[in-house]
Amino acid sequence: MYSKIVILNFPSEVAQKALVCQLTKKYDLMFNILRADISNKREGFMVLEISSPAKADFKKGVEFLKTHGVSISHPEHQIFKDEEICTHCGACTAVCPTEALYIQRPEMEVIFDKKKCSVCELCILTCPTRAMGLFSKTGEEVS
Ligand code: SF4
Ligand code: SF4
After folding, report:
1. Does residue 122 have its Cβ closer than 6 Å to ligand 1?
2. pLDDT (tens digit per residue) in 70-99
């Protein structure tokens, strides 16, 4: 299964169209909306995890969105977890919308699965020890 997190930016003229639903109908793609701010007649965005049995179908779906005026980007930053600072208190697991942070039992360790992270940054705001941070894809820490 091919899976990728993408950010869709909708110009106001297409914000009211049900383009994302067409991904399933036309290309058999599955999607999970991780974050969204979109409404009729104004610009909006969605952070989607799109999954597909074949990468080729994923590409066709992305092309379909682009031809309808949706611009697509990938998260510019990545989240990291500093294992030396983390106390495994579990606070971040309560706010993580994608289950990228979860408690592994019976060890009760908090595990970070980077592949599931949507870079929503909620864990950074929640972590009492500042173990969660943000860095750019060039490796530079940004918060
Ligand atoms: S909130 Fe911070 S200290 Fe607590 S488990 Fe998550 S990363 Fe570790
Ligand atoms: S940024 Fe933090 S809270 Fe948001 S999806 Fe990634 S790990 Fe979860």
Report:
1. no
2. 988 776 677 889 888 999 999 999 999 889
Model confidence pLDDT, tens digit, residues 4-29: 878 788 888 887 788 999 999 999 99
The residue whose CA has the least distance to atom 1 of ligand 1 is: 127
Atom 6 of ligand 2: nearest residue by CA position: 117
R_g (Cα) of the chain, nearest Å:
17
Length of the chain: 143
Class of domain 77-136: alpha beta
Helix (H) or strand (E) holding 36: strand 30-39
Q: What architecture is domain 2-73?
A: 2-Layer Sandwich (3.30)
pTM of the shown model: 0.58
